[in-house]
Amino acid sequence: MSMIRPRTFEFGPHSPGFAATVIIPTFNRAAALICCLEHLERQTCKDFEVVVVDDGSTDETAHRVQEYGKRTNLSLKFIQQPNGGPARARNVAIGAASSSLVLMIGDDIFAAPELVETHLKLHRQHPAPHVAALGQTVWEEKTQKVTPFMRFLEEGIQFSYNDLVAGKIPGIYFYTSNLSVKTELLRRNPFCERFPAAAFEDLELGLRLTQKEGLELIFIPEALGHHYHPTTFLQACRRMRNGGWSAHLMYEMWPEAYLNPAGATPVRRLARRVLAPAPILFAVTQFTALLTRVITPKALFRAVLGTYFYVGYKQREVEVASEKKSSKQPSVLVNR
């Protein structure tokens, strides 16, 4: 971990206490972040502060936030830290929160006007420290074109809302794009900073809170966050590979949460073994990316994306085996 201390800047009006703290980790998304903050200005409830943690951005994020801070009516803390991943950024933001409730969103989430108010209402009804609330995240459609492939992702790859019902749900749906949790619960149980990317670090914490704290996660679909994140098939492939790597890390920590990277059916297992060799996977990936311009071959999407998950999982598996082998190697004395 870098020894450079984070720098904090404060903008807008301040008061001795807020009902909630909205925390936003950000990395190289200056334009989207400003839009995200502007949507927070339009909330029906004003009793909240915002903490943004810039995780080592190299774009114009710092300049844009400084300029935005001169005109905002939000109570805004802007913290700059060396790049360390979203888990570390959220932990820093949680540490800077001054309220008893944290609402986590992404820097590409445009909050519907009632989002904060809806989360606060849920927690007033359920003040117990182990109760959290999950809002619904959908594609933002006013300023981005939602492609057929993005629709495919929304149907079941990106979020599993089809599996959710109003009421108590498992902690594995601990999606930090639109999630509120009591601050003290998060300070006792921080995000695991071993996860380098935005993949499984939130699900791991959800599982840990379920096991250790009896987490009750309530789905409130009326708390809407609109997701501005144009996504191509190639970008999704990279994300799935990162997800596979992180899934193995989660398995190392929680063996009972094992996800079979080879697939749940014989057909999927065969497809992933056939596609996994690098030359084949590269060719099929490029071909599939071209197809997305004219058709939506969902079965092929699932096969290729699942294979990237499998490849990322196997990559971490090899790394772990290599680490274990190295730790067992006897030291060698060299005569000079």
CATH class of the largest domain: Alpha Beta
CATH homologous superfamily placement of the largest domain: Spore Coat Polysaccharide Biosynthesis Protein SpsA, Chain A
Order of helices and strands: EEHEHEHEEHEHEEHHEHHHH
CATH topology of the largest domain: Spore Coat Polysaccharide Biosynthesis Protein SpsA, Chain A
Tell me the structural class: alpha/beta
- How many β strands by DSSP? 10
Walk me through this protein's architecture.
- The chain is an alpha/beta fold and 336 residues long.
- It folds into two domains: 7-227, Spore Coat Polysaccharide Biosynthesis Protein SpsA, Chain A (Alpha-Beta Complex); 233-319, no CATH class.
- It is built from eleven helices and ten strands.
- The chain has helices spanning 30-41, 61-69, 86-96, 115-125, 148-157, 183-188, 201-213, 233-253, 266-275, 278-291, 298-328; strands spanning 7-11, 20-26, 48-55, 76-81, 101-105, 109-111, 131-139, 168-169, 178-182, 216-227.
- Strands 1, 2, 3, 4, 5, 6, 7, 8, 9 and 10 form a ten-stranded mixed beta sheet that branches.
- Strand 2 (20-26), helix 1 (30-41) and strand 3 form a beta-alpha-beta unit.
- Helix 8 (233-253) crosses helix 11 (298-328) and helix 9 packs across helix 11.
- Residues 331-336 have low confidence and may be disordered.
List the helices and strands and how they pair.
Layout: E1 7-11, E2 20-26, H1 30-41, E3 48-55, H2 61-69, E4 76-81, H3 86-96, E5 101-105, E6 109-111, H4 115-125, E7 131-139, H5 148-157, E8 168-169, E9 178-182, H6 183-188, H7 201-213, E10 216-227, H8 233-253, H9 266-275, H10 278-291, H11 298-328
Helix pairs in contact: 1-2, 8-11, 9-11, 10-11
